[in-house]
Each structure stands twice: as C-alpha cells, then as structure tokens.
Known about the structure:
This protein is an alpha/beta fold.
Amino acid sequence: MSETQGHAGRMDSIYATQRHFYDLTRKYYLLGRDRLIRHLSPPPQGTVLEVGCGTGRNLIVAARRWPQAHCYGFDISQAMLETARANVAKAGLAHRITLAQGDATDFAPAALFGVPAFDRVFMSYTLSMIPDWQGAIAAAAAALAPGGQLHIVDFGQQERLPRPFRTGLFAWLRKFDVTPRGDLARFVEVAAQAAGGSARFTPLYRGYAWAAEVRRP
C-alpha cells in the first residue's frame, strides 16, 4: 500500500461517521474559516480551489460570497466527498462547484479539473492533518495562476493563550491525527520565494489560529 493510499484510508476511517456531524461540531473551534473566505476576493469569472474540501462547507460559503467565481475542491477521503457532493447538490450549487478526489501533495489542476491553474487556492485546517504538509503548500502554490493567491488558515501554537489550554488542546487534537505546524510561517515563505512572490503571516485570536498568504506576481 502506498503512503497516499494509507493516508486516504486513515481519513476515511476517521470521517466515516464524523462526516455526518462534522460541520455542527467544528464551527465552534475551526476559527478563521469565514475570515479567509472574505479575503479571497477572486477576479470576475475567476477560479477558486479548496485543497482538502471535506464536507464542502467552505466551498458553499465561498460560492455564495463570490457568485461570479467558479469553485473547485478535492479531498483525499472518498467518504468526505460523498458528503460534500450531497451538500453541494442540496445547496443548489452543483453547476458552480466541481469536486474530485485527489492528493494535496501531488495533484495536477488540468488532470483533475481541466483547468491549467487557479486564481485563488485555499487550505482551511488541512495542513495539520497532512503528513507531508510542506509538500502540500508547495503543490498549492504551484497551482496558482499569474497574479494568484494562496490563502491558509490552521491551528497556531496558542502562543498568547494559557499553557494548560495549549497542552489540553494539543492532546485532544492528537486523538484525531491533527498536529499544528509550528514551522508554518517559514514554509509559507519558502513557497512564496519559489513562486517569485510574497508571503504574509498573521496570528489570529491570540495565536489560536494562524493565517498565511502567498501572492504570485
């Protein structure tokens, strides 16, 4: 079994049941997702890709927020994609949101969606669940069209919150194979340099979450 197949199997195992109540519970602690979507600001008729789209919740919010854009999303978990497709259809957005199964560390926009690159790519609380998260950042930045932007939000290091809170949260997250990435800012900068662009890093909510951007010229 390949590493990709192994990771896909783990995600399907974790979310086979959780996907049915995922959005109801995650809204209380996946902070900064809607802030990210508000900052996307794709160009008219632009393309927006979510890497690790999960239940499709973020794509639905993005499609409603930016009605002139066409949205795309992929996930490694087939179980999550089943839920995402049902949610997108229920929202009446199947004509504007296209879904596929893919690996965040190794994907080709043209092969998955017939699109050469994307004006906006975003990753919301996915990097903390991807073993090769540095590779996922590099792959997402490589999928940007000229002038494109990569937007990221994920768990921070809780640097301005009480130590017991950080210890308890990290212990709880480990139960779900979630690991906040302490080197996020550095690897975002590496990706920006590789793209010939610029990076921006913003701690949110006293470090509970971290937001980052890569802007390609």
